[in-house]
Amino acid sequence: MLNMPSIDGVEAVRKNSVDRNSKKSHVRKSLSSLYARDLSARLFIGQIRTVCRSG
C-alpha cells in the first residue's frame, strides 16, 4: 500500500512512452500476453502432472 504513488508514477511514465511508440508497445503487449499464456499453460500442465503423481 505504501508503494502505490511510486507505482502510479511508473505507470504514467510507461503510458507516456507507450503513446509515443504505440506500434512497439503493441508488439510488446502481444509478446507478453503470449508469454503469460505459455506460462499459465505450463503451470496448468504442471498441476495436472503433480495431481496424477499424487493420485
Q: Can you walk through the features of this model?
A:
Residues 1-26 are annotated as: Disordered. Residues 11-22 have a biased composition (Basic and acidic residues). The protein has 55 residues and is mainly alpha-helical. It has a domain at 22-55. 91% of the residues lie in helices and 0% in strands. It has 2 helices and no strands. It is elongated and about 50 Å long. The N and C termini lie far apart (40 Å). 0% of the residues are buried. The mean pLDDT is 76.
Helix content: over 70%
Number of helices: 2
Quaternary state of this entry equals: single chain
Instruction: Tell me the β content.
Output: under 5%
> How many runs of DSSP E, i.e. beta strands?
0
Structural class determined from secondary elements: mainly alpha
Order of helices and strands: HH
| CA distance, first residue to last residue | 40 Å
Largest sheet: none
**C-alpha-based Rg, rounded:** 18 Å
Overall average residue pLDDT: 76
Low-confidence stretches: none
Principal-axes shape call: elongated
Biased composition (Basic and acidic residues): 11-22
Region (Disordered): 1-26
